[in-house]
Amino acid sequence: MSDIIRRDPRAEWIARNRLHPLHAEMAAPAAETRGPSGLIRKNPHAVGFIGPNGIKRIDRSGGSGAAVGIRRGARSAQQVELPLHTVENPDYYVVAVLDMVGGRLTSHDKDVLGQAHKLIRGGDGSGAVLAVVFGEHKEEAFDKAGVDRLLHLTGSEFDGYCPEQKVACLAEVEKQYQPRYWLFPDSINGGNELGCRLAARLGERPATQAWQVDRDTSVCRGGGGLSDITRDTPRLLLLAEECADPIDETRHQVLALELDRKPRIINRLQDCGQVAVDPNSVSLAEAEFILSAGNGIHDWDQFHQAAEALGATEGASRVAVDDGFMPRFRQVGATGTWVTARVYVAVGISGAVQHMQGIGQCDKVVAINTDAGCDMVKRADLSIIGDSQKVLAQLIELARDYREGGAENAA
Amino acid sequence: MANAEHLKIVALVSVGQHPKSGRARRAEQDARAVELGLNLCGEKVQVLHAGDVAEESLRSYAGMGLKQLRVLQQAAGADASVALGDYLSEHLPDIVLTGVRAESGESSGMTPYLLAEKLGWPLVTRIADIARIENGEAEILQALPRGQRRAIRVRLPFVASVDNAAAAPRQSAYGPGRRAELENLPWVETADEVRAAFEEAPARKRPKRLKMVKAKTAAERFKAATAKSQGGGGRVIKDQPPHEQAQAIFDLLLEEGVLR
């Protein structure tokens, strides 16, 4: 279609002639017309529509009227179509080794990827961000996080705790790709350890807790967080959280790369698995899995049994604490503890604003409630509408079967 | 822990810094390393520092019940990890305990890694406790995020960095601390040239990340500022028997891997 605006003399004639049988159709979209000189003319009388109560309504957001369907369709299509950032034959690589807690990109990982693109942007030559991921993952949005190339290393040798094996692989990456920068998240989820081990192996002096990095200088936290160290940017960086903005306006290719030679080494650290820790001895703020109770709980013994069977840390809403069913230090919310659990199961909690603030950082929220319209159900990733007592009874049974089944399989 | 008396254990200590006042003190994690060493082999634990023997806060380590503390004499601009590496490869202890990160200086936390690389020994990071040592093999509890623990077996000798999750250090007694002997060993100094180029300044407050609203129209901005967060795409299970509902939750828990 050409973009030239053409006048339609017949349509104009019909629009002028109020007695013409087609007048109504032609005159309807007359809020904005081209005048004879080509200027846009607005007709204020034709703006808006008559609402159901007979009052004229003007909706400037474009959320109603005849054009709604078309506009919405166009908008959602736009959201899907972020521009694709392509790198053909990169001159160099910036390697980001990701934590992937629970098999997904953490916000820290996304910041690191954003920083990687910041180091490439505006520099000489074309660089690609190479993300290294160990073990299985569940992530689907690598493209939107800014991964140009993905090196996914899987196999039984990456199960459990194996930093030495991982560092041997990263040393191989160093040989094969000779990246310009190595970026690690400076986190307790393994990023710091891998980065330091690789730095010691390669003889690089890393910048740790770096929070403001460009190609020339980086600013790092030192002295136990009391001082800022400004230094030349080294090749290997351990980045603090929120070091750079994550990528959100482009899609990336996520082309899979391979490692030519996968080293296999004998682990000197033998992983004997995680030790069972009493979940209630873990502080609520750092618990991974919380089963939280509110006003909707009537059988408290059953609730405690459920927490024990599932191995969850117990939490409570303010009502349950005020009524004396749970101790004060178990309270979740603005007046209690701000929790960071990966999975938060709210049983019989409708979700007061203060409570929702407290669980703001939780990844997955499961709600068990009788009221389908409450705020907790709106926030939850999975909502069960029904009697919590029956559902908990079934859950306890499932968990016990799972434990026994696991024990049989192990034996 | 009973049969660890014959082992040579070295705990490396640094000068700490109080997070609020900035005054020199015994470092939290290093004190925990000394405490772990004291629990393993009593007074025989060798506490080692590279730096200035005149530093007063070293006495607070000695006050934990040590007769003697060894100091490798180093100037302020020297690289302590080189001196420590040389000393350890000469004396070859069985276990080297350090903190995770120093509280002053660059506080990069690289010392245990550099020592382990230099000595060629395995490194166990962030340990909470050493459960037992038998037949030249140690069983170690490693501290994980979210209060979890992992058991690791490793052959002696090894380097370990001690996490804040380890047992709290005992109180330091002033008198014994004054009476303890600080043995000063003159040692070869290696100047830290990379560090000399650093510019150090008091920490600036980091800007808080603002929530960016990328709205095109005023109506969208208004909506973003006022609307309650809507749970988009949450699955709702209604009118189903309880066992199916429970199964749905259980599947989610399994998928997330929180059931152990």
Would you write up a description of this structure?
Chain A is α/β, with parallel strands linked by helices and 411 residues long. Chain A folds into three domains: 9-79, no CATH class; 84-257, 3-Layer(aba) Sandwich (Rossmann fold); 279-410, Rossmann fold (3-Layer(aba) Sandwich), CATH 3.40.50. Chain A has twelve helices and 21 strands. Chain A has a nine-stranded mixed beta sheet with strand order 12-11-10-13-9-6-7-8-15, with helices on both faces. Chain B has two domains: 9-196, HUPs (Rossmann fold); 204-260, no CATH class. The two termini of chain B are 28 Å apart. In chain B, helix 3 runs parallel beside helix 4. Chain B is α/β, with parallel strands linked by helices and 260 residues long. Chain B has helices at 28-41, 58-62, 80-91, 111-119, 174-179, 193-196, 218-226, 242-256; strands at residues 9-12, 15-17, 24-26, 46-51, 68-73, 95-99, 123-134, 137-143, 149-155, 158-162, 181-186, 199-202, 235-237. The model of chain B has no long low-confidence stretch (mean pLDDT 90). Chain B has eight helices and 13 strands. Classes of the chains: A alpha/beta (411), B alpha/beta (260). Chains A and B meet through helix 7, strand 10, strand 12, strand 16 and strand 20 of A and helix 4, strand 7, strand 8, strand 9 and strand 12 of B. Strand 21 of chain A pairs parallel with strand 13 of chain B. Chain A: One of its GO terms (molecular function) is flavin adenine dinucleotide binding.
